[in-house]
Design brief:
The structure is a homodimer.
Chain A lengths: L4 E5 L3 H10 L6 E5 L3 H9 L5 E3 L2 H4 L5 E4 L3 H10 L9 E4 L5 H6 L8 E7 L20 E6 L5 H14 L3 E4 L2 H23 L13 H7 L6 H10 L1 H24 L2 H20 L1
Amino acid sequence: MEQKTILVVGLGLIGGSLAIGLKGFEDYAIVGCDVSQPTLRFAAEHGICDRLTEHAADAVPSADVTLLCLHPQGILDFMKEHAGRFKQGSLVTDVCGVKTAIMEGASALPECVDFIGGHPMAGTEFSGIEHAFGEMFQLAHYLVTPRETSTPDHLDLLRRMAEHIGFRDFITTTPEQHDAMIAYTSQMMHIIALSVCDDEGLFTCKGFEGNSFRDCTRVAALDVPLWTQLFSLNAPALDKVLAELEVHLADYRKALQSGDRSALADKLRYSAARKRQMNLE
Amino acid sequence: MEQKTILVVGLGLIGGSLAIGLKGFEDYAIVGCDVSQPTLRFAAEHGICDRLTEHAADAVPSADVTLLCLHPQGILDFMKEHAGRFKQGSLVTDVCGVKTAIMEGASALPECVDFIGGHPMAGTEFSGIEHAFGEMFQLAHYLVTPRETSTPDHLDLLRRMAEHIGFRDFITTTPEQHDAMIAYTSQMMHIIALSVCDDEGLFTCKGFEGNSFRDCTRVAALDVPLWTQLFSLNAPALDKVLAELEVHLADYRKALQSGDRSALADKLRYSAARKRQMNLE
């Protein structure tokens, strides 16, 4: 009997890190696929996968699990292009940071293929396999959006993969819930970081920045094509949370302008207590 | 000849950490002063200072350096109350995160005392000596606002203290420049974190938060009386940078709403490049 395989399509920062993390998972061979020769060379030299290929069309038909680690549009295109090639009864999953658009795209797959959306909530401000590392997902949430038809066996397999990689937990949700949450917890943080870096004082503040500045702006050095897609595919939800942020910032400005220290203290006490409460939960 | 002393007034998170970091500095004894008995007990049990006292009035007259690590109003009050007690020719400095108000308050000191404002740009979201640690200042900037009359000897002494503690660098600036910069690099980061935590989604987002969320909101769990003072003492400068942030956030909302992906990509490219450029400088 042939060895079972997990095919990782796209060996960038996330795909490369997942491949490293999956090494030694049960009796599966990890097969890496990328169109970039330098990426394949790097993967080969660092033993990142058990096997490597540049030909997705050859590797897809024998994969028991296909893990799509491309940019959002790349994932949609890949599913359409290879729809007829996936192995019957195999699991296809992805890593995209928005899920509604991906789950819609997955309707291109034939019924004999089980698609479960995935979002490993980790990353760094860098791109490319040379920045990949297996520990990236430790303490990270693994968000999963199954379809109604997804089988318990496939969900369980994905859960075991997540455990092997070292995720903190495995959270099942709906695409709509996922995208609304992610607009707030992730996408808005990126828009804030970008907006802070648009300040005219950015380059003159050198020497005056502390950890709060470094931490808030770190993610501004983002992958532009990737985030253009992520923001665009979730624009209404993102706009909604940005509108709420605008209100809360304006309330703080009013409290500052009023000169009423006790009112300001009340506001600070309220917000700080919420953060402390959240830390405890 | 009596041993020279550095008096650390206020053994909280910052004072305690500075006292630990100053241990073994040249031939100075480190004297800690606090009004709280539990704080003094903790300091004694952990050997945080060479000597401890609860009576500032007794310790001030013999101190060669007095390091005021109280809240902003506490620093102003202390200088007024003990103005006549400081040792002739001694150095008085502080750790306050705003400098214009402190430098004005220092005019209460007699001419025979040299006051140099200081702002060690570090901290955590915790308070109190039990969270103090000497490594807090490694990689941190030490911002210094001398008076025109400050002596080179005192500036040099402060620089050697900063080196001993392990600061990344020692940056001399004016109180006005300091406060304008800090409004942007520090205070605004705190207002952002607080405003993000005011979102109605805060408690339901559990399980969906990644590093960008944790990093951005970390400082929201702040010391309310301290930050009420810091924000209030620098309200106009803070309001100015918040107004600019509002514009940049609104520009991003417009780009998102327009649905024009190439315009959005252009904006992302601009902001991300600024951040990358800043990282290089």
